[in-house]
């Protein structure tokens, strides 16, 4: 049998190799992409919003998103940097500090692989006080039992910034470091005077406390101290929690930071593109409007607001197509 290869044989062989390569690429393209979202404590806003987005954006079997409870912004940033999570929610300030190696991350090195997928909604800073504690301003926290939130949370970072702005030292307080739901339970039992929480309103822990406890106040964060903070930190903005957001609580002027969806430069562009495209689909829009009070604030038009870190190339591709980002 001759071993001479004719042009016809080579052509057939080439077609075979080509078909095999196409099949291989097709199989690879159909391989499921798993995309985890680090959220926050179950009593906060990150957790329900994360679950809502995961359900709406997932397109199995090709794209599967899952939301995971976590300790919040700092924990999520660290998990993304280590590869333990593909993405997570973070306050804009925490993401900026991590990327630049400043603030909370001073001396820990820059986490330069962090990338923005989308800015989501403003997170209001709540300073919740038991009515019986008679706390009307930050200055009244001296000598009180106050929870600053747990280590690893963005709330703890901002609570310390706020205390400093009002001239309060941590040693001036009887400080505790609890999740919001734990702090609320302790307040309901008479063991806590006030606690900080940063998140979209309304949040379940505060809603339940206002409805079942002895009444609460939301302490305003306004005036010259707040103005100075906004001037010093560009990620802070003025905000107002509307009247009756929480039972028997009037409108309260406060501060806010952006809640952002962060990912890693190491996550493939095509995966992030699909997640971003599905985030701004009609299906997700309907789920956001119906699923959570903060859903209506998650708008494509503000997806790049307050971007203190680079936008992921996969997300940037979508935003360019949508006319939100120049080439």
How are the secondary structure elements laid out?
Blueprint: H1 7-29, E1 33-38, H2 46-57, E2 63-68, H3 73-82, E3 87-91, H4 92-100, E4 114-130, E5 145-147, H5 154-165, E6 174-176, H6 180-188, E7 194-199, H7 204-212, E8 216-218, H8 224-232, E9 237-241, E10 252-264, H9 269-279, H10 282-291, H11 313-321
Parallel strand pairs: 1-2, 1-3, 5-6, 5-7
Antiparallel strand pairs: 3-10, 4-7, 4-8, 4-10, 9-10
Helix pairs in contact: 2-10, 6-7, 9-11
- Reading off the top of the CATH hierarchy, the class of the largest domain is best stated as Alpha Beta
Overall number of structural domains: 2
What is the overall number of helices?
A: 11
Distance between the ends: 60 Å
Task: Bin the strand percentage.
Answer: 15-25%
Protein name: TAXI family TRAP transporter solute-binding subunit
Pfam families: NMT1_3
Keywords: Signal
Short description:
With 327 residues, the chain is α/β, with parallel strands linked by helices. The chain contains eleven helices and ten strands. Strands 1, 2, 3, 4, 5, 6, 7, 8, 9 and 10 form a ten-stranded mixed beta sheet that branches.
What this model shows, in words?
With 327 residues, the protein is an alpha/beta fold. It folds into two domains: 32-120 and 259-321, D-Maltodextrin-Binding Protein, domain 2, CATH 3.40.190; 124-258, D-Maltodextrin-Binding Protein, domain 2. It is 38% helix and 20% strand. Strands 1, 2, 3, 4, 5, 6, 7, 8, 9 and 10 form a ten-stranded mixed beta sheet that branches. Helix 2 (46-57) links the parallel strand 1 and strand 2 (63-68). Helix 2 packs antiparallel against helix 10, helix 6 (180-188) packs parallel to helix 7 and helix 9 (269-279) packs across helix 11. The longest helix is centred in the N-terminal third of the chain and has 23 residues, at 7-29. The chain is globular and about 55 Å long. The chain starts with 6 loop residues before the first helix and ends in a 6-residue tail after the last helix. InterPro entries: TAT_signal, TRAP_TAXI. Residues 1-29 form the signal peptide. It comes from Microvirga thermotolerans.
């Amino acid at each position: 049998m001759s071993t001479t290869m004719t042009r016809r044989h080579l052509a057939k062989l080439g077609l075979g190799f080509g078909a095999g390569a196409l099949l291989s690429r097709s199989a690879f393209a159909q391989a499921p992409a798993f995309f985890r979202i680090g959220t926050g404590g179950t009593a906060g806003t990150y957790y329900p919003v994360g679950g809502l987005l995961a359900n709406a954006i997932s397109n199995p079997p090709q794209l599967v998103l899952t939301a995971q409870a976590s300790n919040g912004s700092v924990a999520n940033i660290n998990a993304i940097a280590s590869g333990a999570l593909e993405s997570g929610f973070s306050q804009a300030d925490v993401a900026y500090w991590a990327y630049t190696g400043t603030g909370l991350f001073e001396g820990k090195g820059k986490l330069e692989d962090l990338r923005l997928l989308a800015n989501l909604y403003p997170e209001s800073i709540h300073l919740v006080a038991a009515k019986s504690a008679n706390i009307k301003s930050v200055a009244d926290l001296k000598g009180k039992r106050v929870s600053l939130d747990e280590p690893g949370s963005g709330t703890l970072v901002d609570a310390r910034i706020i205390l400093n702005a009002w001239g309060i030292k941590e040693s001036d307080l009887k400080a505790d470091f609890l999740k919001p739901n734990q702090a609320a339970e302790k307040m309901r039992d008479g063991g806590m005077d006030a606690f900080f929480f940063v998140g979209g309103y309304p949040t379940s822990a505060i809603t339940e406390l206002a409805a079942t406890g002895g009444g609460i106040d939301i302490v305003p964060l306004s005036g010259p101290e707040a103005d100075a903070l906004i001037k010093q930190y560009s990620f802070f903005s003025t905000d107002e929690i509307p009247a009756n957001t929480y039972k028997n609580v009037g409108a309260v002027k406060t501060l806010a930071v952006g809640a952002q969806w962060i990912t890693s430069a190491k996550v493939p562009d095509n995966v992030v593109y699909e997640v971003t495209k599905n985030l701004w689909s009609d299906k997700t829009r309907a789920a956001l409007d119906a699923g959570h009070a903060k859903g209506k604030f998650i708008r494509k038009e503000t997806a790049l607001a307050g971007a203190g870190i680079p936008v992921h190339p996969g997300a940037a591709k979508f935003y360019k197509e949508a006319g939100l980002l120049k080439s």
